[in-house]
Amino acid sequence: MRGDAGDRLRRKELRKLLPTNKDDLVAVEALVRLGYPAVQPLLHDLLKWIRVESWSVAKPIADFLVIIGPALAPEVGRVLASRDDLWKSAVLKNIVTDWPTDAIRQLSPQLFMIATNGQSWGADLLALRLLARHSVGDPEWISGWLEFKRNHHNARLAEIADILRLMGGGAA
């Protein structure tokens, strides 16, 4: 019980160091100086700041989290299990992309679910790329989903071209 209260207090104090806004690079620099594992209680909070890649704090936080690597797997798993597709995409693209195969295997249940989502801000293709690159899962299943997505997107592109023609803009 004592340890839990101490952990909560320590986390509460650390949370004061989090950025106060999307441009708070001073806070990011201070957290990076603290380093890992000192910032471990804040990993989930830090992942929230990379959700919008145009924010000033997103890149330096992502760069710091990349250094931590697969130790982030539990927190990344929480993000991948969330309903926030933009966040999933940012985490897959900026954090997980160069992880080793064993770490990708740990995330494979979430990656398989994301791969089947068609409205995912590109997280579906990032998940399929990770699964394929690390030979996780059935290659025929991955190929089947890629072909399905190609057909879907080709049909959408044809629809876009048709609408442009209707508007007199010609084919794109």
List the helices and strands and how they pair.
Blueprint: H1 2-15, H2 25-34, H3 43-48, H4 58-68, H5 73-80, H6 85-96, H7 101-115, H8 123-133, H9 139-166
Account of the 3D structure:
With about 170 residues, the chain is mainly alpha-helical. Helices cover about 65% and strands about 0% of the residues. It has nine helices and no strands. The chain has helices at about 1-15, 25-35, 45-50, 60-70, 75-80, 85-95, 100-115, 125-135, 140-165. Helix 5 (about 75-80) runs parallel beside helix 7 (about 100-115) and helix 6 (about 85-95) packs parallel to helix 8 (about 125-135). The protein is globular and about 60 Å long.
In CATH terms, the superfamily of the domain at 2-99 is: Domain of unknown function DUF5071
The CATH class label of the domain at 2-99 is Mainly Alpha
Number of strands: 0
Strand content: under 5%
- How helix-rich are the residues, as a percent range? 55-70%
Overall structural class, as computed from helix and strand content, comes to mainly alpha
* Rg: 20 Å
CATH topology of the domain at 2-99: Serine Threonine Protein Phosphatase 5, Tetratricopeptide repeat
Number of helices: 9
| Overall pLDDT level | 94
CATH architecture of the domain at 2-99: Alpha Horseshoe
- What pattern of helices and strands is seen along the backbone? HHHHHHHHH
> Which regions are unreliable across 5 or more consecutive residues at pLDDT < 50?
none
* Shape field: globular
Note the gap between the termini.
64 Å
- Report on the biggest sheet: none
